[in-house]
Design goal:
homodimer; 24% strand; alpha+beta; 5 helices; globular; Transcriptional regulator PpsR (chains A, B); five-stranded antiparallel sheet
Chain lengths: 135, 135
């Protein structure tokens, strides 16, 4: 059982590496938000560029603060509601730092007992909605 | 120490979930290839669609078999060489199932002692090379 646990542990470590490499190279701008704190827990270079900051600037910041005119609870609730609605939906927002308009497509999931929101960013609506067709 | 190990284990499990969700929803077509076997160990829906198969069809298949005119060792060697070269480089190939031309951009990494190749697919050269600018 100990050996099985160790093998399992190795597999998990491999998954972490895969996750980090995938985030780093993905051309799909993506960020992860903790539903309990509303803060950005991870963001890839493509998303940081769109938002107009570095990864270091954006990690740990409140996601609602990164967009114009959105209060924290309101934005999180909207995103969570959209994520569990049928079909894919995107919300249009303006990034505070870059002053760029973009669409957020949210996906809600649970990991290690915590609710996380994966947000994909897009500067065109076509692509934001196109995600559905790829599924 | 046991408690620390358990917390660590929970973190790893969370990373696996993040990895799976990210692969599933990413609009960036991506596949993972084992360098030791040359087989596809993971592929997301966006990449499966471009290659013209389902995830089930493509999982475990030899990556070189999915493209026209490429022998297994040759393709793997080319991709690995490109991955470690400076700057990002893409290789143009035709997918066997879909008969679509596309560019592969490889990233080589090591996880749990195994060498893995992450391949991003693109139907336009502009996007394949654009990846560099986002970094």
């Amino acid at each position: 059982a100990q050996l099985a646990l160790e093998r399992d542990y190795e597999t998990q470590r491999e998954m972490e590496t895969r996750y980090r490499v995938l985030m780093e190279v993905s051309r799909d701008p993506v960020l992860m938000v903790s539903m309990s704190t509303g803060r950005i827990t991870d963001i890839n270079p493509a998303a940081a560029q769109l938002l107009g900051g570095t990864r270091a600037d954006l990690l740990g910041s409140a996601v609602a603060q990164e967009f114009e005119g959105r209060r924290r609870g309101e934005l999180l609730d909207n995103l969570a509601t959209m994520a569990i609605a049928e079909g894919s939906a995107a919300i249009e927002l303006m990034a505070r730092r870059s002053q760029k308009r973009m669409f957020l497509t949210p996906t809600l999931f649970r990991a290690a007992g915590e609710r996380l929101l994966l947000c994909q960013l897009d500067t065109s609506e076509r692509e934001a909605l196109g995600a559905d067709e790829l599924g």
